Amino acid sequence: MLLLLLALPFVAALAIAMARGASRRTVACLAAAAPLLGLAALGWLTPAVMDDVSLRATLPWLAEAGLALSLHLDGLAWMFAGLVLGIGALIVLYAHYYLAEEDSAPRFFGCLMLFMGAMLGVVLAHNLLLLVVFWELTSISSFLLIGFWTRRQDARQGARMALTITGMGGLALLGGVLLIGRVTGSYELDVVLVSGDAIRASTLYPAILALVLAGVFTKSAQFPVHFWLPQAMAAPTPVSAYLHSATMVKAGVFLLARLHPALAGTDLFFYVVSSIGAITLLVGAWYAIFQHDLKGLLAYSTISHLGLITLLFGLSTPMAVVAGVFHILNHATFKASLFMAAGIIDHECGTRDLRRLGNLRRYMPYTAALAIVASLAMAGIPLLNGFLSKEMFFAEALDAGERNLFRIAISIAALLYGVFGVAYSLRFVHDAFFGRGPRALPVEPHEPPAWMQVPVAVLVALCLAVGMLPGLAIEPVLKTAVAGTLGPAAPEFSLAVWHGWNLPLAMSIGGVLGGVLFYFLLRRLFALHDAMLRTWGRQLYQFNVDKLFNAAWRFTGRVAAGGIRRSLFWMIVVVLVVGAAPFIGKEAALLGDLPAPQPMPWLGWILWAVLVASTLATVAWHGKRLTALIVIGAVGLMVSVAFAMLSAPDLALTQLLVEMVTIALMMMALNYLPKQSKQARTPFRRWRDALISAVAGIGVAGLAYAMLVREPDGSVAAEMLARSLPEAYGANVVNVILVDFRGFDTFGEITVFAVAALVVHAMLRWARLRPDEIVPGPPVQLPIPADLTQLLFPLALTVSIYLFLRGHNAPGGGFIAGLAIAVPVLIKYALQGARAVESTFGFDYVRGISIGLLLAAAGGLGSLLFGLPFLTSGHVDLDLPLVGKLPLASALVFDTGVYVVVFAGALLILSTMGTVRRRTLAAEDAA
Hints:
By secondary structure, the protein is mostly helical.
């Protein structure tokens, strides 16, 4: 059930991506299905979680590295999963009415589902390495969502900043997790959480704490790396509402709660986490007061509330943890509703600028009522949920252990937070819904569609229910979440609206009165609408980015000035130094006791002679690019023949087909290069380059020879030969290695190849000939070769399928078959032109790459359904009429993906290169 729960958003994202041409309503329904079904599954599991049963689901993956697809659902994960799915469902409904007609609904909802799935992975992960994987996926998916409006520069900048900051934090977190695994001997949470004493006693504890907190603070926008969050407000409002309430920034405080039993309990943890939380609490609240953008104000208020939660976890007392978990819930409800209300204002008024808004209660009374209640909850007004957790925060701040000075400082910070929180909440309400206005709006303000207000109303109702009836509305949920966080150390508590007259209540009253007084004093003494506070963090970030780019430009200018020749020179020199270093000293003896070479047959000498002659001819004629290209093709051909002579037919076929495609690609590239290449300016450079090339060639040849003739201890070759047929059900060990033993490597390689093809297509797409353009000059008529291609293609397709189907037991396979069918299509391109081929062939190469990658992934993930590691092969023998016995391995599905990716990727590159016009010709046409 846990695997299904995690898979739902990703399945929805895939369905949305495949639903090409579907209506916006259909896409929204597909997106809504994932969180709604997830909530149903979570409801099914709730009784067990309430009974303090931790549910587990584990699929082995890379056991040797300690990585498994290990999931669990305890109280804390259950609470966060409910937030992610519940608020996610409301966000989908809201976004359906928010997005404009020109916005791509499939792209938005697909990325949103990816974001939802990544956050679910973070909260459900039982393996810390798996948690880091999903942690980074939240950064990538949020990058796509923040930069959704690609036409806007602020969206692109905000997305890059968020990815940079949270990505660096993710790398730090990975380092901390690896150190935790080194101390505890496991990455499984059940082992880590009971090893708190060992972690705290380890000499690595300061490093572990620093690295983990770096990940937490960057993700949850804590001081001094808080500045990325306001810049992310360039995202569509549904993204902002989701990011601030239940995902992304909450991932940091979730991890702080999750690892609290293992990391908390030291003075270092207490002072660092509490201090950073207190500073963030005040900095965020202060800057929120002076924001003129509704979303900017809410963003800084989120920073402040995240600081409050961090401070509570830093105090480390059991009741402080209870208050922290409680405020996570409360903040999620009122902040999501406030962001959606801000989006409604922007959507129906055309602006979020508080200086232009005002008096909107007369135009949007229902929206105003909902937003005012949510704002009061954010300010911590009684009978609303924010008041309860704020009271608990004041109580814990007043009882911050025996550290008198620190307790006084925390208490003062708490009181200031109460004042500032009321002030910025009051500004939100007063400047948007009261006072004078609105001023020069592009549209007449009006209420949104009723269904667009439903998510806001639901969340506001929760704020009221929790604030008035906490014992019934939220206490069981909170106790379950706290039990999952602290385990046996969870305290007994009860929630109530009234606890009598006490000091926390006095602080609440003082905060409310002080906030109201402070806000109206600011308005009276200062021109609040003219004030603008700029954070130094963003300026420092931009300064560092500019300096980094300048340094990169200077380095590139020194290394690559003069073209590719100098870059190759330095690259080969570095490779030579690094490659020769291990053989200096004692290790040099490794090359001294190599066995004598075997006698070479006369055919081998002929191949060697042709290879040497072709190589020397390439060097001699390198200035004539076309001639050199033809000659170097002979080198590739001889290498193919050498593989065949050495009984490696798979390698021979691969090398031959790769050589054909590569030569064709290089010939297309020659069209955009001068016919003659530049010669070295001086004889010294020519002799220097010749010497370095000779040393590099001899070194590589020597290493290759040493690897071929030396029999290493414990060679895996015999092991693979022995296991190929009985375990992978394939007699062709080369193909078995590619699709089974090293299938994950192959999956990575086809992914890199797909990315390379898409990059080439994206870079050169602007120069493709459009159908309405006419190439000058009479068309070249080649009727006989063109007719031959019509006959060649069906034959090549048959050969390709034959090579593909036999690949598991004989020379062939997906890679070879993909190239085999790409070659005749390439010939059709060359003889008939791109338009003629694409009009008749009708194959979408970009979509083909996507389908191929999905097939390969499905072939690997299928084994997980049977409790086996990723890409484990299965086997079945089919008895078919007329055909007889037909053995099939499940690796065929993975190899099909390889086949499609290779074919589509190769043709995408070649077709794009073959239809690019020179820039000079394009400029002449424009003139």
